[in-house]
């Protein structure tokens, strides 16, 4: 096993919903485990779609995780000795952690951890979501994933909300959101109405 850099690393995976961010995170963490490193995954306790104790992809792949309200809780929850022996920290649904920037700085710069972050870079309005974009300047690598537009099959860069709720944080799956290309995002009102008509018919 290669010696870990004392400075640590930060790798960021972003994209719209259904782009495979959690899948990419789990694969990367599994690769680190296969390489002999110790690793854990943290996700927000707000996300209870598939239960609290696992990070789960939309197609059912999963790994055990810690569900926390704040990342700052992690070191105390894990214990100082176990934290000191830890090599890799994966963070899923990172947009929900308000202390993401501070945690990543501390874990990578001071504790020498490899931090792999997966989250939405924008909300359903294509506005900044949480602190994910704030950590881009900290990152060693940034991967922007795309989904498949649910309406035309082209590459989807955006997340369209199908319901009338307007709050930024509305946790849901395909019942609430769909990945869309630029054209269908721009025609969002028409798309949403057509979707409702199709469901109601």
Automatic annotation (TrEMBL):
GO terms for molecular function: ATP binding; identical protein binding; metal ion binding; thymidine kinase activity. The keyword Kinase applies. Pfam families: TK (PF00265). It comes from the Eukaryota. It catalyses: thymidine + ATP = dTMP + ADP + H(+). It comes from Ananas comosus. InterPro entries: P-loop_NTPase (IPR027417), Thymidine_kinase (IPR001267), Thymidine_kinase_CS (IPR020633). Substrate binds at residue 177. Keywords: ATP-binding, DNA synthesis, Kinase, Metal-binding, Nucleotide-binding, Transferase, Zinc. Belongs to the thymidine kinase family. This is Thymidine kinase. Its EC number is 2.7.1.21. GO terms for biological process: DNA biosynthetic process; response to stress; thymidine metabolic process. The active site is at residue 93. SUPFAM superfamilies: Glucocorticoid receptor-like (DNA-binding domain), P-loop containing nucleoside triphosphate hydrolases.
């Amino acid at each position: 096993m290669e010696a870990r850099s004392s400075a640590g690393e930060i790798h960021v995976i972003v994209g719209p919903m259904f782009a495979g961010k959690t899948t990419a995170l789990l694969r990367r963490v599994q690769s680190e485990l296969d390489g002999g490193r110790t690793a854990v995954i943290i996700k927000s306790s707000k996300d209870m779609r598939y239960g609290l104790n696992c990070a789960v992809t939309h197609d059912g792949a999963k790994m055990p995780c810690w569900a926390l309200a704040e990342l700052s809780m992690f070191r105390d929850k894990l214990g100082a000795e176990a934290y000191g022996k830890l090599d890799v920290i994966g963070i899923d649904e990172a947009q929900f952690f308000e202390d993401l920037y501070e945690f990543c700085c501390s874990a990578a710069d001071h504790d020498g951890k490899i931090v792999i972050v997966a989250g939405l870079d924008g909300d359903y309005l294509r506005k900044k979501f949480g602190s994910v974009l704030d950590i881009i300047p900290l990152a060693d690598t940034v991967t922007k994933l795309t989904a498949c537009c649910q309406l035309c099959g082209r590459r989807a860069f955006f997340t369209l909300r199908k319901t009338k709720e307007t709050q930024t944080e509305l946790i849901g799956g395909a019942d609430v959101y769909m990945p869309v290309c630029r054209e269908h995002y721009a025609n969002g009102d028409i798309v949403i109405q057509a979707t409702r008509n199709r469901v109601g018919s």
